[in-house]
Amino acid sequence: xxxxxxxxxxxxxxxxxxxxxxxxxxxxxxxxxxxxxxxxxxxxxxxxxxxxxxxxxxxxxxxxxxxxxxxxxxxxxxxxxxxxxxxxxxxxxxxxxxxxxxxxxxxxxxxxxxxxxxxxxxxxxxxxxxxxxxxxxxxxxxxxxxxxxxxxxxxxxxxxxxxxxxxxxxxxxxxxxxxxxxxxxxxxxxxxxxxxxxxxxxxxxxxxxxxxxxxxxxxxxxxxxxxxxxxxxxxxxxxxxxxxxxxxxxxxxxxxxxxxxxxxxxxxxxxxxxxxxxxxxxxxxxxxxxxxxxxxxxxxxxxxxxxxxxxxxxxx
Length: 316
Ligand SMILES: [Zn+2]
Known about the structure:
The chain is an alpha/beta fold.
């Protein structure tokens, strides 16, 4: 009996050592980010629904890549060089083809700071015509966030601005080898720098932060512009949408309409508050509240949205 127990202990002890070593190996060799192939050749990693505060780890946005017959396009590179490197390593598990394009859907830090991982001779960076300026304007602010929450020193908060620029209401097509993708830029909406990427082969639209599913949508541009851009997207002939945050969806019209309903409600209630001479704080406490159960991180983000739109709408 004693002997049995001893063996039992030894067996389990060695098993746990094995598991510990194995998991350390996995951890050390990375990548720690997982991907889902949402359509043939389209791989998406979903970031976590966390705010940019002390919980921020740089991995909160959806990032991923599209594989053609000759090359690969990366779409959004994550919030840090670390995430960019993990993305680069992960791509190699699925394809040996070269990364030819890195496309940023917009300026926000959780989507752009992995760009530096992909700098190379034959790599073009694609973005909205306003993106280089917007990156430069936010550089110091983003460096402070990366230092404070990610512990990344400023010389490793590396911005890589796009060299291929798309103007609002224009599209450019890029061929990955028997696979064309269409990058379209928009006027001010979520930000001043929004582009979408349409994979024409599978009719999949990568919407960036023009679509949030689950997480409260963010207005860092203009609420009227955002509502109008959604109307344009609703007319597209597509089958699936990959949001900037949240789960990719084939019920994409419903998802955009849910987002647009929130914006219309917010617009109307903020307008009414301004007409009634209500101040900003009272408006933050009251406007949009009937949407609070429909979205994650609602209180903080709804307040920020009102902060953004209230001063603009006061002048209308
Ligand atoms: Zn964003």
